[in-house]
Structures are given as C-alpha cells and as structure tokens.
Design a protein that fits this description.
- Helices cover 38% and strands 23% of the residues.
- The protein is of the alpha/beta class and 189 residues long.
- The chain has one domain: Formyl transferase, N-terminal domain (Rossmann fold), CATH 3.40.50.170.
- A seven-stranded mixed β-sheet has the order 3-2-1-4-5-6-7, covered by helices on one side.
- Strand 4, helix 5 and strand 5 form a beta-alpha-beta unit.
- Helix 1 packs parallel to helix 7 and helix 6 crosses helix 7.
- The two termini are 12 Å apart.
Length: 189
C-alpha cells in the first residue's frame, strides 16, 4: 500500500482533488495532511475526509529531523507538495529521495524559485505577455523548483487574459493532471 502525505499551506484545492481521486483506490491512500499553518483551510479538508493531520513549526522542521519519526509512524512512503511554501530541508529530501513531488503553476524553469508562487507567478506571466503558460510537476531537491521535471502541461494565454483568468486556466490543468501523474509514478515504481 502506498501511503501519501500531502504538505500544503493554504486552501488545499489540489489536496482535495488528490484526496477524492484516491478515495477508493485499492493500493494508494492519502494518509496524512501536513501544514505549516495552524489555521490553514486544508486542515479542515483533512477533518472532512477523516484524514490525520499534523501542524509543523518552522524551527523544528528545519533544525531537527523529528518529522521523519512522525512520517514513519503513519507509514508514509510518498510526499506530495501541493501549495507548500517552505523549502524542504536536506534530511527530508534524502530520506524520501525520488519520492517527493511538487506542482508549480508555470512552465519551469520560467517563473520558479523562492517567492514565486500562486498569483505572483500568474502576474509575471501576464506582465511578460507570454503566449502560453502551464504547470510543471517535478521531483523535489534542496532548491526551490529545481528538481527534475516529471511532467508539463500547457495552456494558451490570450491578450484578453488577466492574472486571474490565467490562474483559473492553470488550476484546471493542476486538477486534471496532478492526481493522475502521482498515480502513474506510484504504480510504476
């Protein structure tokens, strides 16, 4: 059985799509939601779906490897970052080598790196007058958005688009592809 921990900092729209996608799956289960914000709406999602949750604190996350024991207690063998804004520390990257994935709302390497998340990415796409954008699902390493690319999907950006409409198009791609790519990864390893 593959047991997933979803790390999220906010609303959790991708987390919800992933949870629903795997609800009846015979070999993949969302086992744990981890957040760095005690008031993150994603924690209410965990409660709604009967999934355990954990709130982590920055100093402990960065300066100890206590989180590994927590993840082990839940038998986690795969981590999905879905809007998690902290850099993943080396101890976690090494312990879950090749088993941590992130979704980024642009076609990396464009508009990636520290501070480039959410609407900031869509505003940068808009300001650059790019004709396309999309999503990137990638492995996680010790640097923001620099892990090897697993999958990208594109959508057109028209002169009528705004950062908000760009965000909507990108979110549709996220919801369409992220659970499927996670499933493919887990079933082929």
């Amino acid at each position: 059985m593959h047991k997933i921990a979803i790390f999220a900092s906010g609303r959790g729209s991708n987390a919800e799509k992933i949870i629903k996608y795997f609800q009846q799956h015979p070999t993949i289960k969302v086992q744990l939601i981890v957040s760095n914000k005690a008031d993150a709406p994603v924690l209410q999602l965990a409660e709604k779906f009967g999934i355990s949750s954990l709130v982590i604190h920055k100093a402990r996350f960065l300066q100890t490897n206590d989180l590994l024991d927590e993840l082990e207690s839940f038998k986690i063998n795969f981590i999905v970052l879905a809007g998690f804004l902290w850099l993943i520390p080396s101890y976690l990257v090494h312990a879950f080598s090749g088993r941590i994935v992130n979704i980024h709302p642009s076609l990396l390497p464009k508009y990636g790196g520290k501070g480039m998340y959410g609407m900031k990415v869509h505003e940068a796409v808009f300001e650059s007058k790019d004709q396309e954008t999309g999503i990137t699902i990638h492995h996680v390493n010790e640097h923001y958005d620099e892990g090897s690319i697993i999958f990208q999907a594109k959508c057109a950006v028209t002169p009528l688009d705004t950062p908000v409409t760009i965000a909507q198009k990108v979110q549709l791609l996220e919801h369409q592809y992220f659970p499927v790519i996670i499933e493919n990864m887990l079933l082929t390893t």
